[in-house]
């Protein structure tokens, strides 16, 4: 029994090593680090760019790091998912390397899990680099930072947020065996949820639907309407910031609003927008729901991809 277990572990690690070496050889990992560095630098430089435009000095911000979501947002998580997963399965079919790979005495399940785990390790290494860089950069640019011990929660949330999109990319890539379709299919879903989200949430007052769709989710606020209160998003992209806010403010309750279109007049300032309160819920409920949604989407899309990969016909 122990020999069989060791044998499976050795095969699994061999696939992981094969995938990581492939990422290094194709400079995929290096490319991810460069993109991470560029996005984080842009986030850190935002204050200076605004200062150059307005002429106002850069203000210290002791909460910049814990509010930065590791320097990424919804598009950043989506982008890293595309780069990480768009060709981990489809490229093997496109290049024909799937034939010698599956000819080895390794099950398709082991190949699939090894590749998925290698993608996770690549993503984890990139986000750890990003977190360290944001911590140092935040202190240098915006002064001493508060609650840096909570930053790992941002890392955890970023992994959750990105793994959903990785599962979706993997699904399209395995189903189509085409890296371009994997990227475009996922981009279509991301774009659709963002466009539909802004319409359903702000104008129709039906943003609760977005709570169960990966992405930004529904938008609410604490302490007043969106123009006055603290903005809170229910989506899977905001798991990290919401976890941090819950640790700091466990009694927060999030209120959701829609715009009363009938009362809008020309010349209104943002503070005069007629918001209508719809309902409220504890921040703890928001977090539990978003984590549950993330896990369900990840498991469903990964399980479907695994099934399709196992059943895929391979021809030379």
What structural keywords apply?
single chain, 316 residues, alpha+beta, four-stranded antiparallel beta sheet, 7% strand, globular
Detailed description of the structure:
It is built from eleven helices and four strands. The longest helix has 35 residues, at 108-142. The chain has a four-stranded antiparallel β-sheet with strand order 2-1-3-4. The protein has one domain. The protein has 316 residues and is an alpha+beta fold. It has helices at 2-25, 28-54, 64-67, 74-85, 90-95, 98-103, 108-142, 151-176, 179-204, 239-248, 283-311; strands at residues 219-222, 230-233, 253-259, 275-282. A hairpin with a 7-residue loop joins strand 1 and strand 2. It is 65% helix and 7% strand.
């Amino acid at each position: 029994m122990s020999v069989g277990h060791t044998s499976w572990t050795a095969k699994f690690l061999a696939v992981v090593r094969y995938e990581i070496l492939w990422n290094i050889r194709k400079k995929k990992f290096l490319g991810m680090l460069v993109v991470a560095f560029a996005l984080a630098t842009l986030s850190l430089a935002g204050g200076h760019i605004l200062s150059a435009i307005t002429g106002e000095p850069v203000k210290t911000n002791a909460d910049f790091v814990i509010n930065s979501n590791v320097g990424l947002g919804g598009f950043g998580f989506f982008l890293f998912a595309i780069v990480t997963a768009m060709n981990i399965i489809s490229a093997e079919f496109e290049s024909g390397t799937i034939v010698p790979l599956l000819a080895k005495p390794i099950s398709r399940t082991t190949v699939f899990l090894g590749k998925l785990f290698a993608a996770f390790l690549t993503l984890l290494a990139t986000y750890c680099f990003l977190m360290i860089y944001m911590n140092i950069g935040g202190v240098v640019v915006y002064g001493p930072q508060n609650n840096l011990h909570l930053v790992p929660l941002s890392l955890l949330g970023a992994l959750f947020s990105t793994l959903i999109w990785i599962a979706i990319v993997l699904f399209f890539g395995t189903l189509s065996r085409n890296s371009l379709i994997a990227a475009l299919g996922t981009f279509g879903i991301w774009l659709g949820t963002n466009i539909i989200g802004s319409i359903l949430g702000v104008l129709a007052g039906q943003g609760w639907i977005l709570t169960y769709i990966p992405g930004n989710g529904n938008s609410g606020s604490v302490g007043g309407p969106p123009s006055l209160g603290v903005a809170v998003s229910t989506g899977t992209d905001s798991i990290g910031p919401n976890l941090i806010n819950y640790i700091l403010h466990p009694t927060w309750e999030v209120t959701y609003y829609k715009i009363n279109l009938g009362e809008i007049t020309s010349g209104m300032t943002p503070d005069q927008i007629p918001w209508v309160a719809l309902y409220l819920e504890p921040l703890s409920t928001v977090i539990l729901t978003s984590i549950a949604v993330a896990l369900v989407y990840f498991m469903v899309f990964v399980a479907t991809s695994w099934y399709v990969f196992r059943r895929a016909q391979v021809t030379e």
